[in-house]
Design goal:
Strand order of the largest sheet: 3-2-1-4-5-6-7-8
Order of helices and strands: EHEHEHEHEHEEHEHHHHHHEHEEHE
Distance between the termini: 42 Å
Number of domains: 3
Radius of gyration: 23 Å
CATH superfamily of the largest domain: NAD(P)-binding Rossmann-like Domain
Largest sheet: 8 strands, mixed
CATH architecture of the largest domain: 3-Layer(aba) Sandwich
Number of strands: 12
Structural class: alpha/beta
Shape: globular
């Protein structure tokens, strides 16, 4: 099978860079993957984990003769890397990035890169609060929305194909529009999560709060564990769209505060009901905006192999499962499993199949 790229250079072999390199190699999308990182240990670990085929001791060694260069660094570092690699790039190379903001990176690439190379901005809507190459996942991009943008049609088409080969779903947006959208659905949630943690952490009853912090607090604040450097850089390079969304959030919090202060039960109920309705309409996916998923909740006992038993029953009936999620199963008691299906027909067939076997099921048809 012909590989789309002969030699790929990964600049920054952390969790995302390592995942990218591992995926390229496992899917045979590049013959060689060269890794470079300021931290020598990161490159050694990447080699041992099969994320790269060789390490480079300098940027020049990494990018020379590479027909694909992936800048897998925080956005401020990427802005500095672009002029550094510009004179080192091979003619015909395609350079791309994985940064969470696009306009600043695209402007810098247009300004400093030579006309003999092409730049395609990229933003995989996938990640983790974990960092370091040890956290790599060759399937990180599977089913994730992967934003790409470039004025250069041929290079854009090649990266679009690559993104699809990585298992992701390519989505094209102009840089400024991308930044506006992610300010709302990605950047604002992180800032709100960090603010919530700070508000609670400022109280004196630390031990008691940690004891009582339940699933709601943990789930809401999980993303606050993301890389401080990455989020600092996002705020610095997407300031205006983030400020607009922060103003919106502050206004909504002030409205909510007034309702609580007034004891306005009717308006509080309406506020929470509208929020619930909007949230229920978001597909139950971890990786970006994907088609509707129809959910089936199956209540199961806690014993080994129960997930396999249910999946086996559905498989024997010719029912395709899109997602499986374990939801708060208590030891020795059991709990619900969520099975996601791409069609309403598969949802109903699965419910009938499992109900006939004695399982308690609940369908979510909307």
């Amino acid at each position: 099978m012909k590989r789309p790229f002969t030699r790929a250079a990964i600049i920054g072999v952390g969790m995302v860079g390592g995942s990218f390199g591992k995926a390229l190699l496992e899917r045979r999308l590049a013959k060689e993957v060269v890794g470079y990182d300021r931290k020598e240990d990161a490159v050694k670990k990447a080699l041992s984990l099969g994320a790269v085929t060789q390490g480079a001791s300098s940027l020049e060694e990494a990018v020379r003769e590479s027909d694909l260069v992936v800048l897998a660094a925080p956005v401020m570092a990427t802005l500095k890397l672009l002029p550094q690699i510009a004179p080192l790039l091979a003619a015909g190379a395609i350079v791309t990035d994985v940064c969470s903001t696009k306009k600043a990176v695209m402007d810098q690439a247009q300004k400093v890169l030579p006309p003999t190379v092409a730049f395609v901005g990229g933003h995989p809507m996938a990640g983790s609060e974990k960092d370091g190459v040890e956290a790599l996942d060759a399937n990180l991009f599977e089913n994730a929305i992967y934003v790409i943008t470039s004025p250069e049609a041929e290079a854009l088409a090649r990266i679009k194909q690559l993104v699809g080969d990585l298992g992701a779903i390519p989505a094209e947006f102009p840089p400024a529009k991308h930044d506006e959208l992610v300010a709302a659905v990605s950047h604002l949630p992180h800032l709100a999560s960090a603010a919530l943690v700070s508000a609670v952490a400022g109280r004196k009853e630390t031990a008691e709060l940690q004891l009582l912090a339940a699933g709601g607090f943990r789930d809401t604040t999980r993303i606050a564990m993301g890389s401080p450097q990455m989020w600092r850089d996002i705020c610095l390079t997407n300031r205006d769209p983030i400020l607009l969304m922060l103003d919106e959030l502050v206004a909504k919090l002030q409205e909510l505060r007034l309702l609580v202060a007034e004891g306005n039960g009717e308006q509080l109920y309406t506020h929470f009901a509208q929020a619930k309705q909007f949230r229920q309409n978001i597909p139950a996916r971890d990786k970006g905006i994907l088609p509707q998923i129809y959910n089936l909740y199956v209540y199961v006992p806690d014993h080994p192999g129960v997930i396999g038993e249910i999946a086996g029953l559905l498989g024997q009936s010719g029912i395709n499962i899109a997602e499986i999620e374990l939801l708060r199963v208590r030891e020795e008691e059991g709990g619900p499993l969520r099975f996601g299906f791409k069609t309403l027909n598969n949802l109903r067939l699965a419910a009938e199949c499992l109900a006939a076997e004695g399982y308690r099921v609940e369908m979510q048809e909307e």
